[in-house]
């Protein structure tokens, strides 16, 4: 597809349906064991991606986005449960053996052995580190190998499982659901016509709950639970969405920290977000619920409620719902999720003297999943946990009317060389390139940088290179 075709969701949806529908349904079936549920999950995924309308650069990104959305649709429906297929003639079927593994182990094996993804691609789709994929694969194969040696002497577990998965996926041909998808999309479009001011504000808040540009399923935002503030506390509470007077339109330049899909480091997006409370509450609510604009970023959070955000002197107290914590399924994910909250909250409140700490609560309790009650509050761990370069402006997906583009961001003090390159996306035509000279480092070791460069109309890809590490943003210039 050309750049314009990737931008036209009507085009890429039908093209993606033609190319990927059957494989996505078979993939979903291998993850849930029921054809009806598989087709429903993939149908919902197409409608969801159409509604979100992300900007795709290539066909591979369309496929990757849809695949991840299907996985998350199934996760949302099934929770921790994985697939189950009844055995034939009273004996365990191949997929019954697979169903004895944990859900994440099932997902890893299906992606690697049936979808033929490599470990890096599997990590990207499932929101894992590559090392975690390797460990999960080894553990699952070891578990299955023990069963085979004791029950039927199978020696080549992976080869056997590839054949078994292919056989299971070929049992039935997926039915044609294009008309169903089209009808669902028409219903969504009709519901979106002529909204009232209240509906506009409500929809904007809902966007925080479902994500806006990444293949992550976010939980709904629930009505907040109010409690009396502590004496002398500067408390942030989520306002009642039914009270229009309590809500302004947007909070500008809200820092929200996400995770790089490829390296797991923290990256910042400066967002204009529907007001959930003051800037701190809006930022933390976004961390928990809002998908990143940039498809190269992800989040350890799957959605939930921010009960309150309170600042007591140098201590920032964040109380997050139990449902949000419970959706985090590993200690590794928990560590990443905590870092997102800590760095975001500290960025909003400010910490010039390095004294701020963050206390995290689970529905008012200090006991957190996997770690129990921490021995101390959480603090920033320095710049080593952060990507070496951040682009603050513009953000991916923006449409800008300009002949010159101002690009701004931050780079770590340790970076020796930083440069920029601007191309027309898809065609690759070079528009501008040059060297960037950042300013002096601040107290945290970051240096501000800014560059103004000419641009041409079209989809424009901005590349910032910091000692070989590249940060990308795709924007549209009108």
TrEMBL record:
InterPro entries: GerMN (IPR019606), RNA_pol_sigma_r2 (IPR013325), RNA_pol_sigma_r3/r4-like (IPR013324), WH-like_DNA-bd_sf (IPR036388)
Keywords from the named record: Membrane, Transmembrane, Transmembrane helix
GO biological process: DNA-templated transcription initiation
Region (Disordered): 224-247
Molecular function as annotated in GO: DNA-binding transcription factor activity
Domain GerMN residues, every copy: 280-371
Name of protein: Sigma subunit
């Amino acid at each position: 597809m050309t750049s314009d075709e990737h931008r036209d969701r009507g085009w890429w949806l039908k093209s993606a349906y033609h190319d990927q529908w059957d494989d996505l349904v078979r993939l979903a079936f291998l993850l849930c064991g029921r054809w009806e549920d598989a087709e429903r999950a993939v149908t919902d995924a197409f409608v969801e991606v159409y509604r979100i309308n992300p900007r795709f650069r290539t066909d591979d990104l369309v496929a990757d986005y849809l695949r991840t959305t299907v996985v998350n649709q199934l996760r949302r429906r099934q929770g921790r449960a994985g697939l189950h297929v009844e055995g034939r003639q009273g004996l365990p079927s191949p997929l019954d053996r697979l169903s004895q593994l944990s859900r994440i182990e099932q997902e890893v094996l299906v992606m690697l052995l049936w979808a033929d993804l490599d470990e890096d691609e599997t990590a990207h789709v499932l929101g894992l580190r590559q090392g975690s994929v390797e460990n999960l694969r080894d553990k699952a194969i070891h578990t299955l190998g023990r069963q085979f040696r004791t029950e039927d002497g199978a020696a080549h577990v992976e080869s056997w499982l590839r054949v078994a998965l292919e056989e299971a996926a070929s049992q039935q041909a997926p039915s044609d659901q294009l008309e169903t998808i089209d009808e669902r999309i028409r219903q969504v479009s009709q519901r979106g016509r002529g909204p009232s001011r209240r509906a506009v504000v409500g929809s904007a808040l809902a966007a925080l709950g479902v994500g806006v540009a990444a293949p992550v399923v976010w939980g709904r935002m629930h009505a907040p639970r109010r409690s009396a503030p502590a004496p002398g506390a500067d408390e942030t509470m989520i306002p009642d969405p039914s009270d229009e007077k309590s809500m302004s339109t947007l909070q500008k330049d809200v820092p929200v920290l996400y995770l790089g899909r490829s390296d797991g480091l923290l990256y910042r997006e400066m967002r204009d977000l529907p007001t959930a409370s003051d800037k701190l509450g809006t930022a933390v609510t976004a961390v928990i619920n809002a998908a990143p604009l940039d498809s190269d970023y992800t989040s350890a959070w799957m959605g939930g409620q921010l009960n309150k955000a309170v600042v007591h002197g140098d201590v920032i107290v964040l109380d997050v719902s139990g449902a949000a914590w419970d959706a985090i399924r590993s200690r590794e994910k928990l560590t990443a999720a905590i870092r997102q909250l800590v760095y975001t909250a500290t960025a909003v409140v400010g910490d010039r003297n390095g004294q701020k700490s963050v206390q995290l609560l689970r529905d008012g309790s200090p006991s957190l999943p996997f770690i129990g009650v921490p021995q101390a509050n959480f603090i920033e761990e320095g710049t080593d946990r952060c990507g070496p370069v951040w682009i603050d402006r513009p953000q991916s997906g923006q449409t800008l009317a300009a002949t010159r583009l101002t690009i701004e961001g931050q780079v770590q003090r340790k970076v020796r060389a930083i440069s920029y390159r601007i191309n027309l996306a898809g065609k690759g035509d070079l528009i501008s390139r040059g060297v960037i000279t950042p300013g002096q480092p601040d107290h945290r070791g970051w240096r501000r940088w800014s560059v103004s460069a000419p641009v041409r109309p079209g989809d424009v890809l901005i590349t910032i290179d910091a000692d070989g590490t590249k940060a990308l943003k795709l924007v549209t210039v009108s």
